[in-house]
Amino acid sequence: MEFWGLFIVALMPVVKVLLITALGTLLALDSFDILGNNATKHLNIMVFFVFAPALVCGNLAKTITLKSMIMLWFMPLNVLLTFVIGTFLGWLLIKVTRVPHHLQGLVLGCCSSGNLGNLPLIIVPAVCKERSNPFGDVDVCYRNALAYVSLSMALGAIFVWSYAYNLVRIFSPKISNVIEVDDATQNPVSRTETDPENLSKCSTKAMHVKELEIQCTTPNGQAKVPKKENIMKQLKIIAEKINLKVLFAPCTIGAIVGLIIGVVPQFRKLLVVDHAPLRVVQDSIDMLGDAGIPAMTLLVGANLLKGLKGVRKQVPLIVGITMVRFIAMPAIGIGIVKGAVHFGFIHHDPLYHFLLLLQFALPPAVSMSTITQLFGAGEGECSVIMLATYSCAAFSLTLWCTFFMWLVL
């Protein structure tokens, strides 16, 4: 494919994203006030609980099978490496630019989490549809592209909502600056000493308020807890510390359901294949999922207005994140993917190699805008970062796509 043909193929999807972002900004203006603070909050909740899980579930169910899962085993590792390497580079950026504490989660999230869903879902199949695409037959290329991109999107959703989500949550001022004091801490010696049920609750809660040094004892103070019971109690404490509601976010649940439907033949025959008895369920999920991409992109534009006043203050941060996402990460990704090909970890498929390389060169995940909105941590700064990185992506993605295609063929 010629350079200018590839340039148009790679540029058009990004321009679409920028246009929808601009529309979101327009709708958030006071003169329209369609996407005001309340509207964006409710739309974020809809994206988090409905649109994004449906998008991931629907695409995985249609395109992923047990055979393809075995062939694509390296992709989860590749996505994990993008997050780990991005986090390390983001940590270096924080140290160099002395990022304020409340923005550190945002920086780490933007450096680690790439847009593994929206852009590949548009770019890779679009490349396959070109008559002169370098990846062979159009139909075969398009079918394989959907399978690859669907898995990439699911993995991205899982890592963003379990990894990047918690990074922002940890550094969020709403979480880190609030100390919750349970009612039991006001009067540790009362019902606790006489109620066995409260005794176990107190021993659990004491782990969360160590600074108050709550002492929970039995009435005679000499009761000995059996070893087995002690182990179970420790496991219960660990389970309570792990926020399962966050770990199994709606997107993660959607990905798990989609993988089960795609991998189990009986479910595919029931829901996915042509003339399936419950095909209407799959179609409904697809309709909901189709609303996810424009909704998330509109939110980026709506949040943009909040950060325009602080553009000048965030220039070092924006430049640093742009360099991490568009220079350092792709260069490291080339070494990782080419090394995996050299040692035979990846099956020979130029389209697959192209997507693995592309995962290192993407701008920050659009979901970061939703996450910052949920926690109220750096929404304005996130919007400015999104505008800057997606504007640069119009050129950087084109150049990297050109180089990646030359590299894999």
Automatic annotation (TrEMBL):
The keyword Transmembrane helix applies. The chain crosses the membrane at residues 6-29, 41-61, 73-94, 147-168, 242-267, 287-305, 317-345, 351-375, 387-408. It is a multi-pass membrane protein. One of its GO terms (biological process) is endoplasmic reticulum to cytosol auxin transport. Keywords: Auxin signaling pathway, Endoplasmic reticulum, Membrane, Transmembrane, Transmembrane helix, Transport. GO terms for cellular component: endoplasmic reticulum membrane. It is found in: Endoplasmic reticulum membrane. InterPro entries: Mem_transp_PIN-like, PILS1/3/4/5/7. The keyword Transmembrane helix applies. Belongs to the auxin efflux carrier (TC 2.A.69.2) family. Involved in cellular auxin homeostasis by regulating auxin metabolism. Regulates intracellular auxin accumulation at the endoplasmic reticulum and thus auxin availability for nuclear auxin signaling. This is Protein PIN-LIKES 3. It comes from Lupinus luteus (European yellow lupine). The lineage of its organism: Eukaryota, Viridiplantae, Streptophyta, Embryophyta, Tracheophyta.
